[in-house]
């Protein structure tokens, strides 16, 4: 059975797919990882790998999804019937289930801080008090669970409405709003006294600070920020009409992702350096360092509220894709089943994520492999499941799918030349697997 819904416009598809990619990886994770790895040099290496690794893999997932016009699991069954390749789709479903279970915890923190900022709960605090507030917020079991549930409920409501009326419509509103708010925030940040130091940190690379760790971190971040390796883009591209250009869509999404990463850096680093703070604060950068900065600016809390709204929109558009991949597998194009599936799966994800939500409170002393539930889920998804999914995807496309069929699918709606196709194919068959294996070996401590 063919997918019953399709994206109404190419722009709707691009904004929705970009919304999936432009999530916490681009706005939350990238700034603090770049801050820990020298800024500008990390940015350049990240962009390079996004183009030579992320873009080809993104196009590969698009090719699988649109050629099959099925959900993440059925796509592999249709292209390679009678084989076990559909386990790649199952891996993607499992990965998204685990990912959303702890991702929703961070989404809950954003909602909590947004409510505090709007009601004045963040006014008049000093740096130490902001640090204490964050620790208290994530340690409070009631607060953590309630805001996590709110985030999950928002996700369920949108996904239950379907592709066009739910996900595409919400993304088409949130993504332009995100860009506008980001530009306003960047203008304010780069006009602060001393902001030039932060701009230089981001845009003037110091390659003397580059280590093998920097390179591997940038490589891993390149496909984490594009939502590849979890079959999300297979699911979304299955809803894409045949006349739309896959290469143009892939380039547009990669370009938007790089632009948002730049905006995030320009919004954060000039402000951080302007107030003499450290850019390598780590994951607490957005919840501790930024409130400290904004509280000292005229109308600072209004700007921080804008940043939190950006943060929330990015988190939600990514969450939509994680839930959608699982719902689409169960509903299989049947809209009557979609709403029920979205609610059942969403609540199941919330329940599964409870240990992650309590990792910094009631379960603070409980660890597995010396990691909290939250950290273990994050490590498993980011360092094992996503790279493994990307690796298997590259192998499937370049060794199992017919090369001529690949070319015909990619050529639909585009004027891609045989030379560009051959270059893409080489990157997928040889370069991407080697780079992904290098990342996996590094994070697993093999070298």
From TrEMBL:
<feature type="transmembrane region" description="Helical">
    <location>
        <begin position="223"/>
        <end position="241"/>
    </location>
</feature>
<protein>
    <recommendedName>
        <fullName>Transporter</fullName>
    </recommendedName>
</protein>
<feature type="transmembrane region" description="Helical">
    <location>
        <begin position="380"/>
        <end position="399"/>
    </location>
</feature>
<keyword id="KW-0472">Membrane</keyword>
<dbReference type="InterPro" id="IPR000175">
    <property type="entry name" value="Na/ntran_symport"/>
</dbReference>
<keyword id="KW-1133">Transmembrane helix</keyword>
<feature type="transmembrane region" description="Helical">
    <location>
        <begin position="85"/>
        <end position="115"/>
    </location>
</feature>
<keyword id="KW-0812">Transmembrane</keyword>
<dbReference type="InterPro" id="IPR037272">
    <property type="entry name" value="SNS_sf"/>
</dbReference>
<feature type="transmembrane region" description="Helical">
    <location>
        <begin position="253"/>
        <end position="277"/>
    </location>
</feature>
<feature type="transmembrane region" description="Helical">
    <location>
        <begin position="40"/>
        <end position="64"/>
    </location>
</feature>
<dbReference type="GO" id="GO:0015293">
    <property type="term" value="F:symporter activity"/>
</dbReference>
<feature type="transmembrane region" description="Helical">
    <location>
        <begin position="12"/>
        <end position="34"/>
    </location>
</feature>
<feature type="transmembrane region" description="Helical">
    <location>
        <begin position="341"/>
        <end position="360"/>
    </location>
</feature>
<dbReference type="GO" id="GO:0016020">
    <property type="term" value="C:membrane"/>
</dbReference>
<keyword id="KW-0813">Transport</keyword>
<comment type="similarity">
    <text>Belongs to the sodium:neurotransmitter symporter (SNF) (TC 2.A.22) family.</text>
</comment>
<feature type="transmembrane region" description="Helical">
    <location>
        <begin position="419"/>
        <end position="441"/>
    </location>
</feature>
<feature type="transmembrane region" description="Helical">
    <location>
        <begin position="175"/>
        <end position="203"/>
    </location>
</feature>
<dbReference type="Pfam" id="PF00209">
    <property type="entry name" value="SNF"/>
</dbReference>
<feature type="transmembrane region" description="Helical">
    <location>
        <begin position="297"/>
        <end position="320"/>
    </location>
</feature>
<feature type="transmembrane region" description="Helical">
    <location>
        <begin position="142"/>
        <end position="163"/>
    </location>
</feature>
<dbReference type="InterPro" id="IPR047218">
    <property type="entry name" value="YocR/YhdH-like"/>
</dbReference>
<keyword id="KW-0769">Symport</keyword>
